[in-house]
Automatic annotation (TrEMBL):
It comes from Anguilla anguilla (European freshwater eel). Gene3D superfamilies: Periplasmic binding protein-like II. SUPFAM superfamilies: Periplasmic binding protein-like II. InterPro entries: Transferrin-like_dom. Pfam families: Transferrin. This is Transferrin-like domain-containing protein. Residues 1-75 form the Transferrin-like domain. Signal peptide: none annotated. It comes from the Eukaryota.
C-alpha cells in the first residue's frame, strides 16, 4: 500500500480499489467486500477480521484467494 500512497498522496485505499479483501479494514468498506470469513455462511461474524478466522488472512489466505480467482474460476 506504500506505493499507492506515494503515487497518490492519499490514504483512502477504498477509493482506489472497487472491491478487495483487506482483513482488518472496516467491514462495511469496499476493502472487505471480497472477504469470506469462515466460508460460505460466515459463522460467527468474522468476515474481514485480521486473524486466521478470515480465510483470506495472511500469506496462506492470499494464496487461497489467488487460487480461487486464477485456478478455480473459468475465464
Amino acid at each position: 500500500m506504500g506505493l499507492i500512497h506515494k503515487a497518490t498522496n492519499d490514504c483512502e485505499f477504498s477509493s482506489f480499489f472497487s472491491e478487495s479483501c483487506a482483513p482488518g479494514a472496516d467491514e462495511g468498506s469496499s476493502l472487505c467486500k471480497l472477504c469470506v470469513g469462515k466460508g460460505k455462511d460466515n459463522v460467527g461474524g468474522v468476515k474481514c477480521r485480521a486473524s486466521t478466522e478470515e480465510l483470506y488472512y495472511g500469506n496462506s489466505g492470499a494464496f487461497r484467494a489467488w487460487w480461487r480467482v486464477v485456478v478455480m474460476l473459468p475465464l
